[in-house]
């Protein structure tokens, strides 16, 4: 199906501003989380009662227990705002772009941390706070000496995102809105994201829709809705190879790439160590990986790759340049623990910007 929207690479010039603020390159909507990082030994993993290397969803009681245990151990080594799309918005800001974010946090200490830190890094946050009895989501990450990350994820207030939480003035200031696939799980959040996508895709609206598939299991749960979103509302699709194959129910990557071609303006598909490809209605553009001395932690690589791509598209760059920006951003984040760049991305990508 040919996209009803103009090519996203035609958007380099600032467009007219709708709303009270300046234009935003990208507005992301996703699960607003705080990553709580604890570096410890193997014995402590057993004492905490967690399964090494796993990602486990936990309820409120277990989240509170883990928070208390971490405090007993002397407190976390690091706490930073997280969540896939939040990471992407931080990456866009680090490259010098204008980014906004909607994600539900509580009126508690972690919520305050999330809001103040996003603001400190130049990301505008618009979502009203949830009541204190609906705690901010957090991911307790235990890192052992071998570099293995064991995650206990509590979605908390983020899962309560609903249509009333959408800041429509911010949507209308955006060149592109990025939607997080993980938010398709809560019903109200799914409704909100569909309303945003349909608003942006309506004739006369000058806002593109980007969709991140997030996770292959998430795709399995919502395949029919994701396919509908891709065909009707999406300009830019972000997926890794496993997610794209899950979307189209095939084990053959070439078949999945052929199926998505022509359904969106751009499908950005990451292939791990093999780099990435852009699929447009007319061509497939291969993007090599940016070489690094050592891969320490791949967490956040896809989020930062998307940041580089979206920043480049907002500037009207060609696809090869956008892909190189994504590769540079991803390469930086995989050389250390954590999803935040430790080296300024705009300096790393100076020859591309």
Radius of gyration over all CA atoms, rounded: 19 Å
Number of DSSP helices?
A: 13
CATH superfamily of the domain at 8-32 and 83-103 and 161-348: Ribokinase
SSE ordering: EEHEHEHEHEEEHEHEHHEHHEEEHHH
Kindly report the spatial arrangement of strands forming the biggest sheet: 6-5-1-9-10-11-12-13-14
In CATH, the architecture of the domain at 8-32 and 83-103 and 161-348 is 3-Layer(aba) Sandwich
Mean pLDDT: 89
Strand fraction equals: 15-25%
Major beta sheet summary: 9 strands, mixed
Q: Can you describe this structure?
A:
By secondary structure, this protein is an alpha/beta fold. The chain has a domain at 8-32 and 83-103 and 161-348: Ribokinase (UDP-N-acetylmuramoyl-L-alanine:D-glutamate ligase). It has helices spanning 42-48, 60-72, 84-94, 109-120, 168-172, 187-201, 216-221, 223-232, 241-247, 253-260, 301-314, 319-333, 345-348; strands at residues 24-29, 33-39, 55-57, 78-82, 99-102, 123-125, 137-143, 149-154, 174-180, 208-212, 236-240, 266-270, 276-279, 284-287. The radius of gyration is 19 Å and the shape is globular. The relative contact order is 0.15.
Describe the structure concisely.
The chain has 353 residues and is an alpha/beta fold. Helices cover 36% and strands 20% of the residues.
Main attributes of the structure:
disordered N terminus, single chain, alpha/beta, 353 residues, five-stranded mixed beta sheet, 13 helices, 36% helix, nine-stranded mixed beta sheet, UDP-N-acetylmuramoyl-L-alanine:D-glutamate ligase
């Amino acid at each position: 199906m040919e996209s009803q929207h103009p090519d996203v690479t035609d958007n380099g010039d600032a467009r007219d501003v709708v709303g009270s603020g300046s234009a935003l390159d990208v507005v992301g909507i996703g699960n607003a989380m705080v990553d709580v990082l604890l570096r410890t030994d193997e014995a402590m993993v057993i004492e905490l009662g967690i399964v090494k290397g796993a990602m486990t969803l936990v309820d409120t009681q277990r989240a509170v227990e883990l928070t208390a245990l971490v405090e007993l151990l002397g407190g976390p080594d690091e706490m930073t705002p997280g969540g896939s799309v939040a990471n992407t918005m931080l990456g866009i800001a680090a490259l010098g772009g204008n980014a906004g974010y909607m994600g539900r946090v509580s009126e508690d200490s972690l919520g305050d941390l999330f809001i103040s830190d996003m603001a400190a890094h130049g990301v505008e946050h618009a979502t009203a706070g949830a009541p204190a009895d609906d705690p901010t989501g957090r991911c307790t990450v235990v890192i052992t000496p071998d570099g293995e990350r064991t995650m206990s994820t509590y979605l908390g207030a983020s899962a309560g995102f609903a249509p009333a939480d959408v800041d429509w003035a911010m949507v209308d200031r955006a060149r592109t809105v990025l939607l997080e696939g993980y938010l398709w799980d809560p019903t109200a959040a799914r409704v909100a994201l569909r309303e945003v996508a349909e608003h942006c895709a309506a004739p006369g609206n000058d806002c593109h829709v980007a969709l991140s598939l997030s996770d292959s299991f998430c795709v399995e749960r919502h395949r029919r809705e994701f396919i509908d979103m891709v065909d009707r509302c999406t300009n830019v699709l972000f997926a890794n190879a496993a997610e794209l194959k899950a979307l189209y129910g095939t084990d053959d990557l070439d078949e999945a790439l052929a199926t998505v071609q022509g359904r969106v303006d751009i499908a950005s598909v990451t292939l791990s160590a093999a780099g990435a490809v852009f699929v447009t209605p007319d061509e497939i553009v291969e993007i090599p990986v940016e070489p690094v001395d050592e891969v320490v932690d791949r967490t956040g690589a896809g989020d930062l790759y998307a940041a580089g791509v979206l920043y480049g598209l907002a500037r009207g760059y060609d696809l090869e340049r956008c892909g190189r920006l994504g590769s540079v951003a991803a390469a930086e984040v995989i050389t250390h623990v954590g999803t935040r760049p430790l080296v300024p991305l705009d300096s790393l990508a100076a020859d591309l910007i």
